[in-house]
Design brief:
322 residues, alpha/beta, TIM Barrel, eight-stranded parallel beta sheet, 12 helices, 45% helix, globular
């Protein structure tokens, strides 16, 4: 069997900084919250359809470990789970032609090389956080050096963090220049810009930061580091995906979206896929343009899939978290 193909979407070349794409844009928080609240009540997926959506979610997961006590052995276990996220009897029971694999494995820069070794031949890319994750409060030259180090180690995707102070001060030129420099440092690796939306105070700031990041050449925009007090929420995600839609309409370039932090359940996996389908369309339901930043979510996805196949719910302890 050939390893699965994990190809990225074409690069976003970016545009010159255009303030008029976001300055003066008002965001109705109440309307955004109401729209987000109805996403999962107006559309439901059951039985075989639910199973198909959950398998697709697995394909879009960035299986992640970002703990202070990470080791090469832990990363190797995570990579083994990324290669074989489901038990063989579930794959057979679902009638899948091959074992699905996760969208990527995401680790710290010093653990990129062990992850690359553990994933050899699988086609699964290694993503690395960089730029002083999670706060990003390091001199720019050191943040750029960290990107280059991770790429040299074999990372094919780089999850950078922005300087939140540039957004809070509405210094869009500084934010644009910073992300553009990070994009250049990535070389051929795709850049995923973490906006840390829980730190940005307003949805208007979230929209503006999203647009500036895309103009600076981000290939994905991502909600959170997972370390903020508030991480991925559906109202914030709605604002970000509508910015992606507006950017695509203006430029013809498709930018990916990655919610991360606080998402742990199969229900969450369905909810964010419904958001992508309704706001951006089926093209954004593939790993080239959609990722779920999660680790424990995978175990919760396995349980309803096992129930679909066997008619019984398994104990969570039966499904290894790696």
């Amino acid at each position: 069997m050939h390893p699965p193909s994990h190809s990225n979407a074409p690069r976003n070349p970016g545009t010159p900084l255009a303030h008029d794409w976001f300055e003066g844009v008002a965001i109705n928080r109440t309307a955004a919250e109401r729209r987000a609240a109805t996403l999962t009540t107006r559309r439901t997926v059951k039985k075989a359809y639910q199973a198909a959506w959950l398998v697709n979610a697995i394909r879009c997961i960035d299986l992640t470990t970002l703990a202070g006590d990470d080791t090469p052995d832990r990363v190797a276990r995570l990579c083994a789970k990324a290669r074989r996220p489901l038990a063989d009897h579930i794959v057979q029971g679902l009638g899948l032609a091959a074992m699905p694999t996760t969208g990527a494995v995401c680790v710290y820069p010093t653990l990129v090389a062990p992850a690359v070794r553990a994933l050899e031949g699988s086609g699964i890319p290694v993503a690395s956080v960089a730029t002083g994750f999670p706060a990003g409060l390091m001199p720019l030259n050191l943040r750029l050096a960290e990107i280059r180090y991770a790429v040299d180690q074999g990372a094919r995707e780089i999850d950078i963090v922005i300087t939140r102070a540039h957004v809070l001060a509405r210094d869009w030129g500084a934010l644009y220049d910073e992300i553009a420099a990070m994009r250049e440092a990535c070389g051929a690796a795709h850049l995923k810009a973490i906006l840390a939306t829980g730190d940005l105070q307003t949805l208007r700031n979230v929209h503006a930061a999203s647009m500036v990041a895309m103009q600076a050449g981000a290939d994905f925009i991502k909600t959170s580091t997972g370390k903020e007090g508030v991480n991925a929420t559906l109202p914030v995600s709605l604002v970000m995906v509508r910015a992606i839609r507006d950017y695509a309409a203006r430029t013809g370039h498709a930018v990916g979206f990655k919610p991360a932090g606080g998402m742990r359940s199969a229900k969450d996996a369905i909810a964010w896929q419904i958001l992508m389908k309704e706001e951006l369309g089926n093209r954004w339901l593939a790993p080239e343009l959609f990722r779920l930043g999660a680790s424990s979510m995978l175990g919760d996805i396995e349980r309803p899939l096992e129930h679909h196949v066997t008619g019984r719910y398994a104990s969570a302890s039966r499904h290894a978290l790696a």
